[in-house]
Amino acid sequence: MRWTEQLLILSFLAVGVLQTATFGANVTHDHRALVIDGRRRVLISGSIHYPRSTPDMWADLIQKSKDGGLDVIETYVFWDLHEPVRNQYDFEGRNDLVKFIKLVGEAGLYAHLRIGPYVCAEWNYGGFPLWLHFIPGIKFRTDNEPFKVEMQRFTAKIVDLMKQEKLYASQGGPIILSQVSFLFS
């Protein structure tokens, strides 16, 4: 099994046993669909990119999404915003991912967290922090050891933060899907 396939599988396993207190539901997968409380569900998802609006706007945007029929809010995690300097993190203001995910849960919606590392959202440099370019020997979005080391470090940081805040469904939070990029050159 190639490392990209392993990474994809691990990203979905990071969710753990999918059950959520948001709706008091048990969430599983039967290889055809998500199953919530023993019933197959087709969930309607839409994207809100939290840093493209202010935290004061988030609750209203999320509520309008719910009113429009969405069940799931999907968002990328923007590496360049959260780690503008290597090992220096920013989760304040527009970068407050925890607050955004909590608001999704408070609205009674599920969350799909797309950790990246590549952001396909008309975002500068694909969401990669500029400092990453200067890592010796790095080649983006390939089976490249320097890239994998940095990517795994950032991914672990985000997953650990979500776990610490108990935001995964297996902990009673709204995150039912967590995804790491699997599209490589």
TrEMBL record:
GO molecular function: beta-galactosidase activity
Root EC class: hydrolase
Domain Glycoside hydrolase 35 catalytic intervals: 34-180
Reactions it catalyzes: Hydrolysis of terminal non-reducing beta-D-galactose residues in beta-D-galactosides
Keywords: Signal
GO biological process: carbohydrate metabolic process
SUPFAM superfamilies: (Trans)glycosidases
EC number: 3.2.1.23
InterPro entries the record matches: GH (IPR017853), Gly_Hdrlase_35_cat (IPR031330), Glycoside_Hdrlase_35 (IPR001944)
Signal peptide start-end: 1-19
PANTHER family: BETA-GALACTOSIDASE RELATED
Family classification: Belongs to the glycosyl hydrolase 35 family.
Protein name, UniProt field: beta-galactosidase
Species: Rhododendron griersonianum
